[in-house]
Amino acid sequence: MEKALLTFLFADLAGFTALTETHGDDDAADVVARFYDLARTSLTDEARLIKTIGDAVMIVANQPPAAVSIALRLLAAARAEAGFPAVRAGLHSGSAVERLGDYFGATVNLAARVTAYARSDQILCTESVAESIRSLDIAVIHSAGTASFKNVAQPVALFELEDAQRHAMTHHEIDPVCRMGLDPDAAPAQLPFRERMYHFCSFACAQKFAQDPETYIKG
Question: The pTM is what?
Fold first, then answer.
């Protein structure tokens, strides 16, 4: 079957397991449903939502610029949601095989692994995506070094994509316990640890952090 050249975007809720354990199954299910809605409303005519996978979405676009624009919009939408967890995303361009409405191949697999490598509230892409948008006024591109992935022969060069207007936005931080995004100025609790101030969405999260900070600041 002929392979198409496409750009694949995966995005998920960073720390979803922690959020479920902290806030409960019902709240977690509501968050996932809202995340799916945000993903759908972030789409353009050049892209499709292929499937939802637990707390993740898989989107395919005809060209890298469309996929990058969607990723930027999706993360911005998540940040704008009150009490919403951080989202992370990964993109890679290349060939893939379509069967029964889904896509398969090394390109898809690498896009998923780049996403899993990303930190909370971060968009990472491969060189194929970064080079395609470098001359366009879509995103600020930062080198993110290289990463080695299982069953990928060579280290992969990664790049972080950031909205050019991000620095002008309201300061945004992540609760280290449940991974929820929050405005530190409005956070109900905060605790110092190792010369840094951590902010929390609730006193319950602050209490868990106080009991074992090392568990929540790894990575």
Answer: 0.76
CB-neighbour burial class of residue 169 (10 A; exposed 0-12, middle 13-18, buried 19+): exposed
The rounded distance, in Å, linking the Cα atoms of 171 and 192 is 18
Which residue do the tokens 């991000």 mark? 166
- The dotted CATH code for 4-167 is 3.30.70.1230
3-state class of 160 per DSSP? strand
Q: Tell me the pLDDT tens digit for each residue of 52-84.
A: 999 999 999 999 999 999 999 999 999 888 778
The amino acid at 19: L
Domain edges within the chain: 4-167, 173-217
What are the φ and ψ backbone dihedral angles of 60, each rounded to 5 degrees? -120, 140
Q: Is 127 exposed, middle or buried (0-12, 13-18, 19+ CB in 10 A)?
A: middle
State how far Cα 183 lies from the chain centre. Answer: 18
